[in-house]
Amino acid sequence: MSTVPAVRRASRIDDSTLDAPPLELDRDEPTPHLDTAPESMAAAKFRWPRAFSALQVRNYRIYVCSQLVANTGLWMQRIAQDWLIRELTGSATAVGITVACQFLPVLLFGMFGGLVADRFPKRKVLMITQSVAAALAILLGVLAVTGAVQAWHVFGIAIMLGFVTVVDNPTRQAFVSELVGHRHIRNAISLNSSVFQLGGLIGPAISGILIHAVGQGPSFMINGAACLLVVTLLGIMAVPDEISSTKSAEAYSIKEQFAEGLDYIRRTPEITWTIVLVAALALFGLNMPVILTAFATTEFSSGVGGYSLFNTLVAIGSLTGALLSARRSGGPRLRFLVSCLVGLGAALMLASVWHVEPLFCATLIGIGIVTMLFMTSANSLVQMTAPAAVRGRVMSVYLLVLLGCQAIGGPIVGSAIDHVGVRTTMLTCGAIVALVALIAGLGMARQSQLRLAVGRSTGRLAPVQIVHR
Fold it and tell me: How far apart are CA 220 and CA 212, in angstroms?
């Protein structure tokens, strides 16, 4: 027996999946945990603009505030960690290995995280994962401050953080869906991305100043404190834990639940193609920490200040992309994902040839914009398509591909930089991303039996259209 309501799907992509929003969630979607009376009264007095409509939900407002602080701390730790391992080893490959250590557990055990998200109260799970993350950040901070830190310490803590990510990420994604419901899910995902990138503006700048002044240790300490703040704010949310889990899921074996989630992905072309595109992005388009450390040290000789600046510029572009996505009223489309990925590939190739630092910096902003437009649309499409009963498992596969492929791509890109140079590596990555996107677009068109046609109307050429064969 399957816990997922039956959903009829064609063996090929219907052309509506290319041009229209994906199917609505099943009608038995759990009601979001809102304080309905106070929220209704507040909504009557004040209505948030469309770009911030998810903030009408009180619990989500609390969650966003916690994420702003947490993401600022996370970005501080990322900058400090990348620069620390570069100082300890002097190798771009070592930076890539650090990325791999953090994401490898997701690649190996990612589905278990989705299972946890579907079986247990999500708020409690998040409070546990954030507490563990705080302890690990503080431990790394103590090692750095005392001067006892070695490369293997960084690798080991990165692996442990990876196991935290296995559970934390799919649970967090599904928890947001419960907080805001189907009506606001697209806007909430865009706002989450905006908050993440706003942290990316603040975090690198603060971390760069701290590294110059006192070293990497305080950045890790601040991230630990930020994780503890998230735990506190999660604790004050009015979310009934007994409703915050999929009760019926516990009646089925782990094997059956794994099979159920994978089967849903297999027979849902919208999700399948999205995951293919995300894999290409994660392998060759999301290795900017490895690439930017090399540019800062070997190409422009700008040091940690330049590295912080490069990350800040990418974050500016990403924040812009997230805000643009929040204003979009239509549902996510596969065709839009393909266009964004082709644009990203072109931007990476363009950045690789600039020898003038201001032009390189300007292109980084464009890279951030198209990357975030793709990421928010892909995430929205998956969450809006998957019903609540399997959303945790579907998101765990999505995140497994997103983070796991970064674990594979990080060392590959780092090794390529050490052997053929950062410019050639970046150019090749951009070309691969664009090529995979184009091939996937052709595959979607073939599966949906579409072709280009030029029609005639009243003796005049009509615009080129995509029609059924």
Answer: 15
Report whether 466 contacts 15 (CB < 8 A).
yes
* Rounded Cα–Cα distance for residues 252 and 246 (Å): 11
| Distance from C-alpha of 166 to C-alpha of 154, rounded to nearest angstrom | 18
- DSSP assignment of 331-363, as one string? PP-HHHHHHHHHHHHHHHHHHHH--SHHHHHHH
Place of tokens 């999946």: 17
Which DSSP state fits 11?
S
Contact in structure between 100 and 242 (CB atoms under 8 Å): no
- Tokens 């994604």, located at residue: 173
Measured between alpha carbons, how far is 159 from 106 in angstroms, rounded to an integer?
Answer: 10
**Residues 231, 123: Cα–Cα separation, whole Å:** 9
> In the structure encoding, which two tokens stand for residue 231, read together?
């735990």
Do 165 and 400 touch, CB atoms closer than 8 A? Answer: no
Phi/psi at 260 (nearest 5 deg)?
-65, -45
Q: Quick: pLDDT tens for 357-386.
A: 889 999 999 999 999 889 888 887 887 787
pTM (predicted TM-score): 0.65
DSSP bridge partners of 450: 468
Q: How many residues does the chain have?
A: 469
